[in-house]
Amino acid sequence: MTDARRLGHTAPRAPLAPTIMDRYLVAELGGPFMFGLSAFTLIFVATQILAIGRLVTEEHAPLWAAVEYFLWDMPQFLLLVIPMAMLLGTLLAMQRLSGDSEVTAFKAGGISLARIVAPLLIVGFVVSLLALAVQENFVPFANDKAAFVKQQAIEHATSATSSSLQAVSPLPGGGKQVTIAAALDVPTQTLLKVTLLRYDAHTELQDLIVADRARYVAPTWHFENATQYHYYPNGDESKLTAPLGLDIDIGARPNQIAKQSLQINDPEQLSRAEIQARLESGQLTPQQVRSFEATYAGKLARPFAAFVFTLIAVPFGLRPVRGGGTGLGFGLAVAIVFVYYVISTIFLSIGSATGLAGPAAWTPNLLFTIIGATLLRRASRV
User: How many Cα atoms occupy the beta-carbon half-sphere of 248 within 13 Å?
Assistant: First the structure.
């Protein structure tokens, strides 16, 4: 037995360590959150099953291809489902705790409402960060796969995707490397008729490499039957033939290059890093630039809807409910989600038209945060 215990004291707890109450509230959120995740996912799945039926019956796509396309297309819908599940889960959890007078009991014990709901808000913020990570790291990969399945197996496109494909990557010292290809053979992941240009920091051409084809061998590309020309500052030129090929990192994977022809007008299919690369490439029209900038800002703001929905769900969940229970909570969640995304769409359109994409993208989050904080403050006075 320690001296502290002999004196009747307990060891001090770490300030940020979760309490029993914190763990209890998070556990209470778990069940309703999973219910919401399942319910909203089933709604999206139902619409996709109808789409699979149309692909098979109208476009004569193989059933396996339609199902594979559906599975790869699902992750982007989950990004919408997760905030909605947090909203419904928090509503139902708070309705249960308030209806059973557990919130009142916590308050009677001297715990403020803000401290009671703090673990739920922390969970909402963490879920937002996880959604952002999934959006940036997994969803673009899944969209790549869905696009290839749709192009090759469903639309029966030819194996070569073409439209003057291009990849741009920075070089040490401030230069850049530009790779241009006539086409991409999707099954073999091979670029056809490839030209690579390297520029120094003053945009002076240093190297020119031409090759019949470049095959992707992760993480680089193998240029076959390549010829390299090097240009010196004094105007001299040297030529090097490499019949065995050259291994060069062009700064892009086959899927990223293919997106230029498949999804150039749909920035929603790209990650924020890929959108930024497109904006810096100088290949977009002014109208496309505004659209890409709006999507770039929206993709950062959108995942944090999970935190905003958690905040605004708390005061609504504390209100007395006479009958309805889960059904009333579900209906309220749908109404809040509808209003949020209508406002978000309006402000993104305004931001795209005015060039103020950043402030416009974050305005719905800020507006709903103010509403949620105001309602929570009023609830804490009751």
Answer: 29
What's the CA gap between 250 and 168, in Å, rounded?
Answer: 7
Q: Which of 36-40, 160-164, 301-305 has the lowest mean pLDDT?
A: 160-164
Tokens of 148: 């290839």
| Residue whose tokens read 């009671």 | 116
Q: pTM here? A: 0.69
pLDDT tens across 60-106, in order?
A: 777 777 777 888 888 888 888 999 999 999 999 988 888 888 888 88
Looking only at the bridges linking them, the beta strands covering 220-224 and 205-217 are antiparallel
Q: How far apart are CA 361 and CA 382, in angstroms?
A: 34
pLDDT band of residue 124 (cuts 50, 70, 90) is: very high
Tokens 């810096």 map to which residue? 280
Q: Identify which of 37, 33, 75 has the alpha carbon closest to the alpha carbon of residue 310.
A: 33
Task: State the Rg of the chain over Cα.
Answer: 27
Count of C-beta atoms within a 10 Å radius of residue 17: 7
Among residues 332, 380, 325, the alpha carbon closest in space to that of 118 is found at 380
Asked if residues 300 and 361 have their Cβ atoms less than 8 Å apart, the reply is yes
Q: Region 118-137: what's the mean pLDDT?
A: 91
Count other Cβ atoms within 10 Å, centred on residue 130: 13
Beta strands in the chain (DSSP E): 160-170, 176-185, 190-199, 205-217, 220-224, 226-231, 237-242, 246-248
Angle at 256 between CA 252 and CA 261, to 5 degrees: 125
Burial class (CB in 10 A: 0-12, 13-18, 19+), 114: middle
pLDDT tens track for 160-201 = 444 567 788 888 878 888 888 888 877 778 888 899 999 988
Tokens of 63: 């059933």
Amino acid type, 209: I
Which residue from 115, 83, 73 is spatially nearest to 302, judged by alpha carbons? 83
